[in-house]
TrEMBL record, chain B:
Gene Ontology terms: biological process: cell division; chromosome segregation; protein transport
Family: Belongs to the WD repeat SEC13 family.
UniProt feature, compositional bias: Low complexity: 324-338, 408-420
GO CC field: kinetochore; lysosomal membrane; nuclear pore
SUPFAM superfamilies in alphabetical order: WD40 repeat-like (SSF50978)
Naturally occurring in which organism (per UniProt): Canis lupus familiaris
Recorded name of the encoding gene: SEH1L
UniProt KW keywords: Cell cycle, Cell division, Centromere, Chromosome partition, Kinetochore, Lysosome, Mitosis, mRNA transport, Nuclear pore complex, Nucleus, Protein transport, Repeat, Translocation, Transport, WD repeat
Function, in words: Component of the Nup107-160 subcomplex of the nuclear pore complex (NPC). The Nup107-160 subcomplex is required for the assembly of a functional NPC. The Nup107-160 subcomplex is also required for normal kinetochore microtubule attachment, mitotic progression and chromosome segregation. This subunit plays a role in recruitment of the Nup107-160 subcomplex to the kinetochore.
Pfam families: WD40
Protein name per the record: Nucleoporin SEH1
Renumbered ranges of WD repeats: 8-40, 274-306
Single Gene Ontology MF annotation: structural molecule activity
Length: 813, 420
């Protein structure tokens, strides 16, 4: 399935020549040997879940370690081949339960594993016996999380453990050379003496520094400018917790800077934070970095076990991993449970965060990609099974994604330190994978570069990748699949300016007033008269409104309706079809006979048939017959003004779903549900029975929705009121509550009757006739007196004062 | 004529979606920078960012507004495998950030195991419902049983589409005759995967969504899909953004003819297909009445499509993405004096047979834009890459092909099917 192996630019020399080619004590820092790495995306099944993997320096073998697996596989072109099982012996001991494994980058025979029982084991593949175990260091008390060989020193091994200690081993000796721990920071480096009162007894100290329970492990002091932390940083101590040391002589306060504040107090106080990762610096011979569960990162000088060079809080929560940049001397990438990968510049005085990548799950491993200065690969320890390659300059979108694993990925390693295209991974799903970068899925490529939305008034919001809108010609033409093979992509040239960083230009295209915005809809809706006058007047009014808004076709339709329904002769002729040919300057449409050339023969009878079958059928027929009729009530128009406009008035009964209107000059029309509903209301009973209830309801809901979009609440309510459909007319009776207060005691009327619960009087008495008002009750909002509408109106003809005699000058609107 | 108002969005990565609210006065944008911004239109028509907050821990693909009846509610979906529902809180904590409204997360929908690629609220008449689709090919439909409680959403349906989903669209029809319907598009690019658009319909009897149709003709990755606003039509119009713009109509076949209880059968027609973007089409969006379709493609242009009375769809406008004046050199066709008079000819050449016809709007001379607004150019669309040989009329296009310019060919009928 994958394409044949390709030559990698810049790589020469054949690897996989075997161990014979190995040169001791020389770093594999030069380019690949005589030939390129070859291979394909492939995987092999392991017997057990993997916890870690490590690649041999020859890039031809990989070691996989887990709780119950410890094997070496050869990476061949087409497959992985098991070469050696290091789990030997009838009863595998816990020493073989590996949490981590590392292959020495100088000595192909040397491996080290970290066991879950705290043992660090080294393995010598050169041993002739079946058991390759070399040395056993049982110094850690808890699981060893990480082992790391010195990149250039053959015999130096570093381990970091859950027990909080990091130990440096010289493989020529039986035990550790030195031990590093956060504890050490306190014991030796924190020879902090309260600077203000070096010799003062605690009592005096108490005055100047608020001491809290000096007997306890935590002491709170208030520092000053001269109180400095001696541990690693130059900043004054200010409101921090300082842990007095057990050996502190009376009167002396020792402590370290606030960064230790996160250390656990209580039962675990005094115990160090678990070490999650240790990594020797690639460039600085003596330096290594360690990460802790409390979010700290420490920088150590291997010669100074007494104190760390530097410490800073890198993450919120555990820092699971770190990786030194292979080229950039000072760059350290750290990944934490807070889902972030941060890149720190360690060359500056204070560790500076230069990049921060936000991933979607906690970061378990991070590995810089060879030859790509800004790329790094990450995997997660839960939820997410994918491996991502990020460009740290584009911190939000992964540059590549490998989705092969079905369970958590536990170990990732680039196959060769100078080959950016081969990534190996081991997973809890018991597979070992080789990923080719060109086979990766690229979320960036698939990501949609544009957003587009039509606004209510015809305006358009458009956001597009700047590179798309900046260039005149746009991008490459469509070429089938966007995921091109790698050799068509930009070459991985670090000197090339970064093209991946993207931003979008956002603009709103606002339609100019009058040129097709939806304002006609609003005007029409507000000005149409739908009820309350004779049909002829309504039609005339609406025709006038439409004409004033430049919608001549609509105006003509109203005129036609008037002619059809208000002329007694025509109104009875129910089954005539009218096609109105009109001149370019027509005022009133002329009634012509039906134009058979344009319409299917026999449409007249068809239409009658339709009526019995429902309008769906009529749609079909009309569409089939002439392709003229798009929708029930779509107001169609054309820009072709020369075309003689055929004006088909579907039938005389006024099924407005068959009114087809050609608008010769005006663009930007609409599916004219407004017309449909208005006609439906105006014509009322005359057409209602001919249109299926469901369709009417559909029109009403559509129109009301449209009115509400334009905030035409009054019109919407009028339409609801005038509708005869039960489902519609109940719309404005829902969720409306009228709260009534008693006009005497001003308390809310709780009971349903006319009698107020509290003052036991009838609330709605007419102030004129002193009877209970049943029916229309009108009252003055100022004094809350009122009564029967007629009585009050009569009263107000004679007096403007309140009829109840309260002296209020009543106002009725 | 459109006026382009450019907005300094200040998103730190690509903007993937913009969305107007129900009343068109608010706009939401979402970006790969993991944030969503809400923009409010001022009296003067300017858009002001009134809220910007980090919504996800991955690229935010889509943002969408709920009907205002449910409050000021947004939903977003992200590469981080979640969708989230946000509500604006009025009257709280405004003093912290002047003029910034406060949005709180009401729920996170975590059912997907892969990137959630689209999220859409159902039409209002269905209640407060939400559909998401994800890269693993599952459409999920959630419902908030209590519209007052936005933090409780129950997963009602899981529809497996078998293909990596990229976009969904609810059928907006409020008619009782139309069952709830959802169209799903896939951007699966594996060669063997076939039809990329599936339509699912709710079946009242089984209370499940069942596949009603598959658009077999759409086989290229689909990036966006949109039902047109229904407005009382008895049929549905569906726009699809794939390697070209396509418009389908779906006419429900009368119920009597179908077996009762089964899914509605549709008569499906493709009514338009345009490759004028000459590249991937990323977005389609309908105007409020469902009569004008806007599409945007890799060419950075927005094109407007509209049908005439013959149901003949054609281009009615092209908007350059950033509203910048168009460079005269590369658009020499603009200044060609023969173009103006040729317009009537073009109009006459329009007829119903071909989908690749288009219409030139009258051209205005480019006006110099002010700093903030400039006139978006209505460009003449370039000729389609593929000219159908049956199109005798297109030979009348007196429009110089950009690539043929150097030939200084006289403006007479172009030979058919020259190596374009």
């Amino acid at each position: 399935m994958p394409p044949p192996p390709t030559e990698l630019p810049g790589s020469s020399g054949r690897t996989g020549l075997g161990r014979a080619a190995m040169e001791k004590m020389s770093r594999v820092s030069t380019a690949l040997g005589g030939g390129a790495l070859t291979g394909r995306t492939m995987h092999c099944h392991l017997d057990a879940p993997a916890n870690a993997i490590s690649v041999c320096r020859d890039a031809a073998q990989v070691v996989v370690a887990g709780r119950s697996i410890f094997k070496i596989y050869a990476i061949e072109d087409e497959q992985f081949v098991e070469k050696l099982n290091l789990r030997v012996g009838r009863k595998p001991s816990l020493n073989l339960s590996c949490a981590d494994v590392v292959w020495h980058q100088m000595d192909e025979n040397l491996l080290a594993t970290a066991a879950t029982n705290g043992v660090v084991v080294t393995w010598n593949l050169g041993r002739p016996s079946r058991n390759k175990q070399d040395q056993l260091f049982t110094e850690h008390k808890r699981t060893v999380n990480k082992v790391c060989f010195h990149p250039t020193e053959a015999h130096v091994l570093l381990s970091g453990s859950q027990d909080g200690f990091m130990k440096c081993f010289d493989l020529r000796r039986k035990d550790s050379v030195s031990t590093f721990s956060e504890e050490c920071v306190q014991l030796s480096a924190a020879s902090f003496l309260c600077a203000q009162c070096p010799e003062a007894p605690p009592q005096l100290c108490k005055d100047q520094h608020q001491m809290r329970d000096p007997g306890e492990t935590e002491v709170h002091i208030t520092g000053s400018q001269t109180t400095r932390c001696l541990a690693s940083c130059p900043w004054p101590i200010d409101h921090i917790s300082v842990r007095p040391l057990p050996t502190t002589p009376p009167g002396r306060l020792r402590g370290v800077h606030a960064t230790l504040e996160a250390s656990p107090s209580g039962p675990r106080a005094g115990q160090s934070e678990s070490v999650r990762d240790v990594q020797f610096s690639i460039r600085d011979y003596f330096t290594f970095a360690s990460t802790f569960e409390n979010g700290n990162v420490q920088l150590w000088d291997i010669r100074r076990p007494d104190r760390c060079e530097r410490m800073f809080t890198a993450h919120n929560g555990p820092v699971f991993c770190c990786d030194w940049h292979p080229e950039d001397r000072g760059w350290l990438a750290t990944g934490g449970r807070d889902k972030m990968v941060k890149v720190w510049d360690m060359t500056t005085h204070r560790a500076k965060e230069v990049h921060c990548v936000q991933t979607i799950a906690s970061v378990a491993r991070v590995k810089w990609r060879p030859e790509c200065r800004h790329h790094l690969a990450t995997c997660s320890m839960m939820v997410d099974h994918n491996i991502y390659v990020w460009d740290v300059r584009r911190p939000f979108v992964p540059a590549a994604m490998f989705e092969e694993h079905r369970d958590v990925t536990t170990g990732i390693a680039w196959r060769h330190p100078h080959d950016p295209s081969f990534l190996l991974s081991g997973s809890k799903d018991s597979t070992l994978c080789q990923h080719l970068f060109r086979d990766a899925s690229q979320p960036v490529e698939r990501a949609n570069p544009e957003g587009l939305c039509y606004g209510l008034f015809g305006d358009l919001a458009f956001a597009a990748k700047e590179s798309l809108v900046a260039t005149e010609s746009g991008r490459k033409p469509y070429a089938g699949d966007r995921r091109h093979p790698i050799f068509f992509k930009r070459k991985l040239d670090p000197s090339e300016p970064f093209v991946g960083l993207a931003s979008s230009a956002l603009s709103v295209f606002e339609i100019e007033p009058g040129s097709g915005s939806m304002s006609w809809f609003v005007d029409t809706a507000e000005r149409y008269a739908l009820a309350g006058r004779p049909l002829a007047e309504l039609c005339d009014h609406n025709a006038k409104v439409a004409r004033e808004l430049g919608r001549n076709q609509v105006a003509q339709t109203w005129t036609m309706l008037r002619i059809i329904y208000c002329s007694p002769g025509l109104a009875s002729a129910t089954n005539l079809n009218h096609s109105v040919g009109k001149g370019s300057s027509c005022g009133l449409p002329l009634m012509n006979s039906f134009n058979l050339k344009d319409m299917a023969p026999g449409l007249g009878s068809e239409t009658r048939l339709d009526r019995s079958k429902g309008d769906t059928r009529s749609d079909t027929v009309l569409l089939d017959s002439s392709a003229t009729l798009l929708t029930n009530e779509d107001n169609e128009e054309t820009e072709g003004s020369d075309v003689p406009a055929d004006y088909l008035l579907g039938d005389v009964e006024g099924e407005e779903d068959e009114l087809y209107l050609l608008e010769p000059e005006h663009a930007h029309e609409q599916g004219d549900v407004q017309m449909a509903v208005s006609v439906l209301i105006v014509l009322g009973e005359r057409v209602r029975k001919d249109i299926d209830e469901q369709t009417q309801e559909h029109w009403y809901t559509s129109y009301i929705d449209l009115l509400q979009r334009f905030c035409l609440w009054n019109v919407s309510n009028q339409v609801v009121k005038l509708s005869t459909s039960r489902a519609i007319s109940c719309l404005n009776q829902a969720s409306t509550t009228l709260h009534v207060n008693c006009s005497h005691c001003k308390r809310p009327m709780s009971s349903r009757g006319w009698v107020c619960d509290r003052c036991h009087r009838c609330a709605s008495m007419c102030a004129v006739c002193h009877h209970v008002v049943k029916g229309l009750f009108v009252w003055c909002q100022g004094c809350s007196h009122g009564g029967h509408l007629q009585h009050i109106m009569k009263w107000l003809e004679g007096s403007s004062h309140c009829p109840a005699g309260c002296g209020h000058l009543c106002e009725y609107s | 004529m459109f006026v382009a108002r450019s907005i300094a969005a200040d998103h730190k990565d690509l903007i993937h979606d913009v969305s107007f609210d129900f009343h068109g006065r608010r706009m939401a944008t979402c970006s790969s920078d993991q944030s969503v911004k809400v923009w409010d239109k001022s009296e003067s028509g300017d858009w002001h960012c009134t809220a910007s907050w980090k919504t996800h821990s991955g690229s935010v693909w889509r943002v969408t507004w709920a009907h205002p009846e449910f409050g000021q509610v947004l939903a977003s979906c992200s590469f981080d495998r979640t969708a989230a529902v946000w509500e604006e809180i009025v009257g709280e904590s405004n003093d912290k950030l002047r003029g910034q409204s406060h949005w709180v997360k009401r729920t996170t929908l975590v059912d997907s195991r892969t990137s959630v690629t689209d999220v859409k609220f159902a039409p209002k008449h269905m209640g407060l419902m939400l559909a998401t689709c994800s890269a693993d090919g599952i459409v999920r439909i959630y419902e908030a049983p209590d519209v007052m409680n936005l933090s409780q959403w129950s997963l009602q349906h899981e529809i497996s589409c078998k293909l990596s989903c990229s976009c969904i669209s609810w059928n907006p029809s409020s008619s009782r005759a139309h069952s709830p319907m959802i169209a799903v598009g896939s951007d699966d690019s594996s060669p063997n995967a076939m039809a990329k658009v599936q339509i699912f319909e709710y079946n009242e009897n089984t209370r499940k969504y069942a596949k009603a149709e598959t658009l077999m003709t759409v086989t290229d990755p689909v990036h966006d899909i949109a039902f047109a606003p229904n407005l009382g039509r008895s049929f549905h119009i569906l726009a699809i953004a794939t390697k070209d713009v396509r418009i389908f109509t779906l006419k429900p076949v009368r119920k009597e003819l179908t077996s009762s209880g089964g899914p509605t059968k549709f008569e499906i027609h493709i009514v338009a297909q345009f490759d004028n973007h000459n590249s991937q089409v990323w977005r389609v969006s309908w105007n409020i009445t469902g009569t004008v379709l806007a599409s945007s493609g890799d060419d950075g242009c927005v094109r407007l499509w509209k049908a005439n009375y013959m149901d003949n769809w054609k281009c009615t406008g092209i908007l350059k993405g950033n509203g910048s004046p168009v460079n005269g050199n590369s658009q020499q066709g603009n200044s060609n004096p023969s173009l103006g008079p040729s317009i009537p000819n073009l109009q006459n050449s329009l007829n119903g047979s071909s989908s690749s016809r288009y219409f030139f709007p009258p051209l205005d001379s480019p006006r110099a834009g002010s700093r903030w607004s400039s006139y978006a150019q209505l460009l003449p669309p370039p000729p389609p890459l593929v000219e159908h040989s049956c199109d005798a009329d297109t030979a009348n296009l007196q429009y110089p092909h950009p690539r043929r310019r150097s030939l200084s060919r006289p403006l007479n009928p172009l030979p058919e099917n020259e190596g374009v």
